[in-house]
Every structure is written in structure tokens, then in C-alpha cells.
Design goal:
It is a single chain. By secondary structure, this protein is of the alpha/beta class. The chain contains 17 helices and 15 strands. The protein has 2 domains: 275 residues, Rossmann fold (3-Layer(aba) Sandwich); 99 residues, 3-Layer(aba) Sandwich (Rossmann fold), CATH 3.40.50.300. Helix 5 packs parallel to helix 6. The radius of gyration is 23 Å and the shape is globular.
């Protein structure tokens, strides 16, 4: 355990099960807000759909509720049969996607009906495949234009989404005419505009673009990319982007100035949307989405593990690294993430080493355990960050020293311990 000078507090946190609110109490307490947003709520088992009353979305929610009550469990192919091209469905089955997750079961009928949608489900629940199936149901491989845009906050999440999109794009057409026109996926994740991307966008536009908001805003401002033909716009980790002072202005312009919600289908996705009713209201009022936007919220009972163990170790600033080493030696994690604060601009200008660099050097010199010591931070170049993620996903056990960029939408299920 830690040194004698460190005091320890052990706390156990358990998540309480979600309880369905009583209808009368809910309507009474929320009535002014419901009138303002024109929202109605339909519960389906432990999941929820929020939509306009007396609308197509409302009827769809009712249909889904009845379907669930009859214990009907369609396969992924059955849900997508009349919407997603057969070659993509075959590709899904080749890689083992047969049974839909909760979010796919609830959201895909909503999306295929043409509604804008807010996908609200925890990381790893299948949101990415959900909106990618919508995209492949909408785009036309014969058309030379960007038809779908996926906006992400970080390169790592963009790389993860691009990999899945290209996996589906590798599906072969049975139709010889369409075989010549495959789905193309471009990743704009470098934080800058590459010449090859400019040429690609002008000469033969890809059907799907996955982009960070920083890279995308440069293309939009210089009119290199015009979202005139956009059929689907997805914003992943939308709550994080709206909270970012650096990115929110560019995101608002994309949603309202560069394209209209009436000419596209809009999908927002996130694991955590605080005050989601207020967010739905803003979506409608600010015209980020159409008025019949549907909020699909799944896995409401256990968004986190049933039991979390928190340990708080108090120590002096100079002893932090040594205490961390003691914790690693006592915990024996199978895999772990060590979060470190980002380096301030003042520290960078003064030439000081970043906290991540100092910690990495310390661990590589002092840690004698079996885990690989890896680094992932904003200032690393694209190839280095990709290499770190590849090493993490090998499954051999790791200690990943990182800033908060891995906290948004990146699936690392092997992680057993997190240190801050």
C-alpha cells in the first residue's frame, strides 16, 4: 500500500436502480416544460423514447412498446432488411453482427423512419454501428458527393469510427454495375488540411467523411468542402463538443449556417447528456434538428458498474509518483489508465516538461510489473497516437498514461483500474 505518511479513505458507491416516475406527478411537475418543448414520454422496458405527441414518432414509440411487450426479438438483419443494402448486411453477418443491442433495437426503426434522433447510451452499447447502418441506408454509391458527415471531438474516436465504417464499406456488391462504385470513407483527423484531402474532395468526393471539428471548420471556411449534398449528419459525443469553448462556435455554424436541418437527417450521440430534456428543447428551438426529433435513451438502470470502489490517497506533491507506484504494486491491475492533467500554455512556453513525460520517465525507470507503459496525449502526432491505441488493443495488459482524450467514446473494456 502507500507510504506511512499517506492517509487513505475507502468509499463504496452503488448505483441505485432507475424507477419509472408516476405519470401524474411527472406531468404535474414538468407540465410547463413539456408544453414548451412539445414533448411526450413513452417508456419501453428500461429504455425511453421522447417524441412529439400525435406525431409519426409518437406512433412509432407506441409500436416499439407493443413489440417489446410481446417479447419479439428481431435479428439485426430483420430490422435492417428493407433499408440497408444486402451487401452491407452480408458483411455484418460475416464479422459476427447478428443480434442487435438495445440501442440498435430501439433506435434503428426510428432512424429508418426518417426522424432526427438523439442516441443516449453508454460507451460500448452499439451507437456507432447504429448510425453507420443509417448512413449506409441513405447514401448512393453512384453519386459522387459527400453524403454523410460524422463529427467527432478527438482523433482517437475518429479512428475507431473510421475503422468500422471501412469494414462495412468493404462489402462486395452482387450487382456488377455497383461493384465499380464502392463506398469511400475519408478521415479528416490530423488537425490540419492535407493537400491529398483537398484533391480527393474536389476530384472524387468520398461518400462518407469522419472529421474532427477543427479539421472540418477549416475546410468549410475555405469552401473546400460544401455540405450541399449532405443527407446524414452525425455528431458523436455531442455533449463534450457543446461544452468545449474552442469547438462550440464551429459546431453551431455547421448545424445552422453551412447546412439546414430540413435538408438532412441529424443524429446526436453521447453516453452522457445532462439535462437531456433541455437539450431536446434547444435542438428544436435552435434548429439543430427538425421538430420531430426522437430521444432514444437505453440502459437507464445501470449506466455504470453496480459497485465502484474509490480510494483517496492524500500525500504531498513530491510523493505523488512514489505513492502511485506503491498503489500499482499492491493493486496488481490487469490493465489500467493513469489520467494526467494537460500541460498549461505557460508551462509550455517556459520549456518545462509535461506531467505525462515526467510520469512516463518515472514509471519506466521504477515500475517492475508485467504491464507495458504507454503514452497517449494531444501533442503526439497522428502516427504515434495510432500506434499507442494499437498497442493498447493487443490485449497483453497495459498502463496507459493519458490526458482526458481517452475519456470520450473510446472502448477499452479490459481496463480494471483507473488512477487520477
Amino acid at each position: 500500500m502507500a507510504s506511512n505518511s499517506a492517509s487513505q479513505i475507502l468509499a463504496i458507491t452503488k448505483t441505485a436502480p432507475y424507477s419509472k416516475p408516476r405519470a401524474s406527478r411527472f406531468l404535474q411537475s414538468r407540465k410547463p416544460y413539456l408544453n414548451l418543448c412539445c414533448l411526450s414520454q413513452k417508456f419501453s422496458n428500461d429504455n425511453a423514447l421522447f417524441c412529439l405527441p400525435n406525431s409519426k414518432s409518437f406512433l412509432l414509440a407506441k409500436e416499439l412498446e407493443e413489440r417489446n411487450s410481446n417479447n419479439h426479438s428481431p435479428t439485426l438483419r430483420e430490422i435492417c432488411q428493407d433499408h440497408v443494402p444486402g451487401n452491407v448486411l452480408r458483411r455484418l453477418e460475416e464479422v459476427g453482427y447478428l443480434v442487435p443491442t438495445d440501442v440498435q433495437r430501439e433506435a434503428l426503426p426510428v432512424l429508418f423512419s426518417g426522424n432526427d434522433c438523439i442516441l443516449h447510451a453508454q460507451t460500448g452499447s452499439g451507437k456507432t454501428l447504429t448510425y453507420l447502418l443509417l448512413i449506409y441506408s441513405q447514401i448512393n454509391p453512384k453519386k459522387s458527393a459527400v453524403q454523410a458527415l460524422i463529427v467527432v471531438p478527438t482523433r482517437e474516436l475518429g479512428m475507431q469510427i473510421t475503422k468500422v465504417a471501412r469494414m462495412l464499406a468493404a462489402a462486395r456488391h452482387m450487382d456488377p454495375e455497383l461493384e465499380q462504385k464502392s463506398y469511400t470513407v475519408m478521415a479528416l483527423l490530423d488537425g490540419g488540411i492535407l493537400r491529398s484531402h483537398k484533391r480527393w474532395l474536389k476530384a472524387e468526393p468520398p461518400a462518407i467523411v469522419v472529421a474532427t471539428i477543427g479539421s472540418l471548420s477549416q475546410l468549410l471556411e475555405k469552401q473546400i468542402f460544401k455540405p450541399d449534398s449532405l443527407r446524414v449528419l452525425v455528431v458523436d459525443e455531442v455533449d463534450f463538443l457543446f461544452k468545449s469553448s474552442k469547438q462550440v462556435s464551429s459546431l453551431r455554424k455547421l448545424l445552422t449556417s453551412y447546412s439546414s436541418c430540413n435538408n438532412r437527417q441529424t443524429v446526436f450521440a453521447s453516453a452522457s447528456i445532462l439535462q437531456h430534456r433541455r437539450f431536446i428543447h434547444d435542438c428544436i428551438q435552435q434548429k439543430w434538428t427538425k421538430g420531430d426529433v426522437v430521444h432514444v435513451h437505453v440502459n437507464r438502470i445501470m449506466p455504470m458498474p453496480a459497485c465502484l470502489y474509490h480510494r483517496f490517497v492524500i500525500c504531498g506533491r513530491k510523493a505523488k509518483h512514489q505513492v502511485l507506484l506503491s498503489l500499482l504494486q499492491s493493486d496488481l491491475p490487469e490493465s489500467g489508465i493513469i489520467f494526467v492533467g494537460e500541460q498549461s500554455e505557460k508551462s509550455k512556453k517556459s520549456g518545462q516538461a509535461s506531467s505525462t513525460t515526467v510520469l512516463i520517465d518515472f514509471l519506466r525507470a521504477s515500475y517492475e510489473g508485467p504491464l507495458d507503459i504507454l503514452l497517449l496525449e494531444e501533442d503526439m502526432n497522428f502516427n504515434s497516437r495510432a500506434a499507442s491505441l494499437t498497442d493498447v488493443r493487443k490485449g497483453d495488459g497495459y498502463l496507459l498514461v493519458s490526458t482526458d482524450i481517452v475519456a470520450r467514446g473510446i472502448d477499452l473494456p479490459e481496463t480494471t483500474h483507473i488512477y487520477n
